[in-house]
Amino acid sequence: QVQLVESGGGLVQPGGSLRLSCAASGLILRIYTMGWYRQAPGKQRELVAVITSEDTVNYADSVKGRFTISRDNDNNTVYLQMNSLKPEDTAVYYCNARRVVGTYELDYWGQGTQVTVSS
User: Fold this and answer.
1) Within a 10 A sphere around the Cβ of 102, how many other Cβ atoms?
2) pLDDT, block means (10 residues), the chain with 119 residues
3) Among 41, 45, 60, 99, which one is least packed by beta carbons within 10 Å?
4) How high is the pLDDT of residue 44?
5) Can you tell me the distance from the alpha carbon of 53 to that of 49, in angstroms, rounded to the nearest whole number?
6) In this structure, are residues 35 and 50 in contact, taking their beta carbons and an 8 Å threshold?
7) What span, in angstroms and rounded, lies between the C-alpha atoms of 97 and 112?
8) How many other C-beta atoms lie within 10 A of the C-beta of residue 106?
9) Number of Cβ within a 10 Å radius of residue 81
10) Residues 67, 18: Cα–Cα separation, whole Å
11) Burial of 116 by CB count in 10 Å (0-12 exposed, 13-18 middle, 19+ buried)?
């Protein structure tokens, strides 16, 4: 059974930092494309950052230069370092694992962790 468990969310002041973690079990993380998504109240879920199995990374324009995604394959964990946080970064952040096998797409989600940026 695949599980993705996010942690590290919380309340932080504007300009502050947080590091989110996503611990994966039941899958071999290094062969998956791992992503962080977020969903703010009343808005659609959006991609924040993604890292492929080849360690290619991509970021939403809104977080470039502030957020960094990384993976620790030995510990089956992916991270999102968030710096210079803004109130508009407030959202529930979700971890995603995705892999295409032939015509199958394997797609797993965590339960989410709340990030609130407010003074």
Assistant:
1) 5
2) 96 98 94 97 96 96 98 96 98 97 94 97
3) 41
4) 97
5) 14
6) yes
7) 13
8) 13
9) 15
10) 10
11) middle
Closest to 92 in 3D by CA, of 13, 9, 31, 27: 9
Which pair of structure tokens corresponds to residue 105?
């797409």
Predicted confidence at residue 86, as pLDDT, reads 98
> Which neighbouring-strand residues pair with 113?
93
Q: What's residue 45's pLDDT? A: 97
- The reported pLDDT for the residue numbered 36 is 98
Residue 110: its H or E element: none
Compute the radius of gyration of the chain from its Cα atoms.
Answer: 14
* Residue 48: Cβ within 10 Å count: 23
Cα–Cα distance measured from residue 87 to residue 82, given in angstroms and rounded to the nearest whole number: 13
